Amino acid sequence: KPTLLQLLALPKVLPDAQQRLEKRYHCLKLWEADDPNQLMRDHGEEVEVLLTSAFHAARAALIDQLPNLKAICSLGVGYDSIDIGHAHAHGIQVSNTPDVLNDCVADLTWGLILSTLRGMGHAERFVREGKWESQLATLPLGRRVTGKRLGIVGLGRVGLAVAQRASGFEMDLRYHNRRPRNDVAWTYESDLLALADWCDILVVATVGGPETRHLINQRVLESLGPEGVLINVARGSVVDEKALIEALAHGTIAAAGLDVFESEPHVPEALKALDNVVLMPHIASATLETRQAMVNLVVENAESYARSGKVLTPVPQAAAIKKPG
Ligand code: 8YV
């Protein structure tokens, strides 16, 4: 059997997932090793497949410790934690788990839109803290959701699922992307600042990584303006978090709903102290059904490589990945 190095234990949502891997591979479980460095030194040369996730970095230094690596199978759609250019330059195939999480990520995006505009987090704390009986008049009014203008940064698979859910809310919608899509009727906005200026709610659903780092900066937040709301379900790196905290604290924008953070799981105290932000611990794909589908797909990729020498859902070639906009 070929050797597969696992950087993580598969989430226990599919009882037979680990067995399926072990049917095809000799699995090395890095997290169980007393001395992970020793395990890498002793067995690095044997490893043909690496199983990782969007939360476990597979950078060049790690890849270089595995001279016979042929495939990286990653759990999650985002692959900014993997040094794709380095992997592809060494002929290593990389797969992710696209599509199966689109609906749940889009659902949570709408949950964030609703809870942010309607102040649901604040209102829920208000009830739990026993303030309803005595202080109802102090509960701030929310903002209407229906009929708002929605701007989407990154109309990829997730962005599209977010957009499709907007029609029930009678929203006008525009998007900013690397290039216009020819399969949608929504207005394309080539200028991110113009999109931020136009919309009431700006949803960030773009890829992470160096190409999009701090794409949402102070200028974009200023364009979004004092009535504007920012929602981020992409990667923390896409938003300049310091600029966002300033903007929320000084009313440069109205509010934000965030599922991702620059140094997660660390969330800055300054952000936690603000009432006009809804904070989620990166749970957009965290439903039983979606996690089952994700685990199944990462295992299917490893199985497919064992069977045919090809992963099932390869990420685009590094050369094709360019800065959006
Ligand atoms: C997951 C994600 O929480 O898919 C992604 O890129 O960020 C999330 O869906 C994560 O990948 C789980 O490993």
UniProtKB/TrEMBL annotation:
Key words, A-Z: NAD, NADP, Oxidoreductase
Gene Ontology CC: cytosol
SUPFAM superfamilies xref list: Formate/glycerate dehydrogenase catalytic domain-like, NAD(P)-binding Rossmann-fold domains
D-isomer specific 2-hydroxyacid dehydrogenase NAD-binding domain segment(s): 111-284
Signal peptide: none
Domain D-isomer specific 2-hydroxyacid dehydrogenase catalytic: 12-315
Gene Ontology molecular functions: glyoxylate reductase (NADPH) activity; hydroxypyruvate reductase [NAD(P)H] activity; NAD binding
UniProt similarity note: Belongs to the D-isomer specific 2-hydroxyacid dehydrogenase family.
PANTHER family documented for this protein: 2-HYDROXYACID DEHYDROGENASE YGL185C-RELATED, 2-HYDROXYACID DEHYDROGENASE-RELATED
Name of protein: Lactate dehydrogenase-like 2-hydroxyacid dehydrogenase
The organism of origin for this protein: Pusillimonas noertemannii
